[in-house]
Amino acid sequence: MAPDYKAEWIQNQTTLKLNDPDLGMYLLGMSGLGMPTYTRFSESSPLQEGITDTGYRLQERLISIILGFNEKDLAGYYQRREDLLRLWRPDMTPGILRITLPTGKVREIQGHLLNGLEFSDSDRSYVTQKTSLVVRCPDPTFYDPEAVYIDFGTGGGGSDNLIIPMPVPMFVGASLFETTKIIPYEGTEKTYPQIIVTGPVTDLVIKNLTTGDKLDFSGVTIANGDTYTLDLRPGYKTVVDAAGNNKIADLTADSDISTFSLQPHPIALNGDNGIQVNGISTTAATNVSFLYYIRLLGI
Fold first, then answer.
1. What are the residue ranges of CATH 2.40.30.200 in the chain?
2. Over the range 245-256, which residues count as b (16 or more CB within 10 Å of their CB) and which as e?
């Protein structure tokens, strides 16, 4: 059965529709779109019965694609072969496989051609060709290409504090920035956000109340007009200021930069991640925002 979804390959801003009869291109089949391969790890003590499961790691994803194309003449046939080889040539820049589901949802994954496009004569009939290829995706998760932006608001008023003597002290003014929001994450695999902090703020702490992970800048002042950008994605794990200087050392030693993430259901019930942000010495310019992509184990 022909796929009921639309598929495109995007390489260096060039887009090829994989199932477009008007262009003589047909997507005959695709596999490897579901659950990726993963490995579970374990350990055991000398006298332990059985093992202790210590977690898992997703492996690379391999997606097999079967294409067919036909042309009006031999010139067009060989030109199509050349165009496909050029588009999928070995390159350090990954291509993007974009799939549009019948529901209208768009899913993307990045990868490189691993093998294929051999154009076997046994799969050819004059100007009609059937061919296959395999795309290797180092990150095996699909993602929604539309980023989600969550703004935690600003500190408000001026920088002068007044503390009114009460059984529970209450800050008057905007020197205290403390807020909690529920981020309803809809993915099926955890996502690592990028966090943008706009100063001024001192002793900033960002905590995921659902997982207990935190990013703690206690003892650090982010100046007015400066920004700290935390990129928590695997392979990045960076903290830089507005000038691009490395500020990862400003995090306390017990911060969880390696694991801080938004978790899916059922780790976070209904995908609801409670995020708490607090700091002092803030003004109306102070802000914290999250930028992330919804990630999925498969489609």
1. 6-140
2. eebeebbeeebb
7-34 residue pLDDT tens: 999 999 899 999 999 889 999 999 999 9
| Burial label, 48 (beta-carbon count in 10 A; 0-12, 13-18, 19+) | exposed
Residue 142 pLDDT grade (very low, low, confident, very high; cuts 50, 70, 90) = very high
Beta bridge partners of 92: none
Question: How many whole angstroms separate alpha carbon 4 and alpha carbon 9?
Answer: 17
**Lookup: tokens for 66:** 């079967």
- CATH 2.60.120.860 residue ranges in the chain? 148-296
| 245, amino acid identity | N
CATH number of 148-296: 2.60.120.860
pLDDT per residue as tens digits for the range 91-128: 889 999 999 999 999 999 999 999 999 999 999 999 99
Strand order in the sheet with 272-280: 176-184, 272-280, 201-208, 214-222
- Give the residue carrying structure tokens 């950008």: 229
**Would you tell me which CATH number, out of the four given (2.40.128.270, 2.40.30.200, 3.10.450.50, 3.40.50.300), belongs to the domain 6-140?**
2.40.30.200
- pTM here? 0.86
Helices (H), the chain: 74-87
Separation of alpha carbons 33 and 250, rounded Å: 41
51-79 pLDDT, tens per residue?
A: 999 999 999 999 999 999 999 999 999 99
Residue 169 is predicted with a pLDDT of 32
